[in-house]
Amino acid sequence: MPMADVAIPRGDAVALTRALVAIDSRNPALVAGAPGEGPVARVLADVLRAWGMRVEVYDALPGRPNVVARAGRAGARALMFNGHLDVVGTDGMTHAPFVPEVRGPRLYGRGSTDMKGGIAAMCAAAALAGDAALDAELIVAAVIDEEEASAGTRVLLERGVRAEMAIVTEPTELAVMPAHRGFVWIEIVVEGRAAHGSRYDLGVDAIRHAGLLLAELDAHAPGAQHVGKDAGDRPLPRGSGHKRRVARVDGDEGTRQRYRVAARDREVSH
Known about the structure:
Mean pLDDT: 85
Low-confidence stretches: 265-270
């Protein structure tokens, strides 16, 4: 952790981003043997304590802690900043993933966009806003496991953390996104029956049927007309409807063919 021992100036979002990016926090549910969020959570907690915030650290999954920090008046109406500490794998990267590198106006490194930059920005905003003696409480929730199953935010809610409003600092190119579509995994099993190549008519071709299923999914792909409304019955921006993609197709061989098609509705509104 090359930058973990360097003092981060209070409210310096760029310095905090660099410190967080320098720490490997790949999600172990996605990358075998990955360290998870523990090291980066400990560094972030130390920084926020040094910035004068009230900090709680607890495991949402074994060895994988959430960091919850607070500023302002305890018990008052609350605004939550929420972001995730885990990152995805580094396959295919062309620069060192955990060596934050500044090129012009950009900072490169795994997680710099998704979403350690957002974590740093919300922490800096909460710390500096807390200086204004607001009659409100600011909650910073830096959670685990967003890239897989959102266990961190689920445990956060189970522990009773609530706020009247929330801002999730995911990368949006600074556009305000008023809605979150959620996500769902759907696994479809296509059954078949193997047969000799010369008598394929006696079998059931699961591969062909899986292909037909994929084509049918494409034919019914939602378009921009699926807009919907928010909780206040206001129209959502175009593109806020659900978007579907097939994430995986796999199968097995033997006397019975079986192919699994895993489809996912993506979780971030655009």
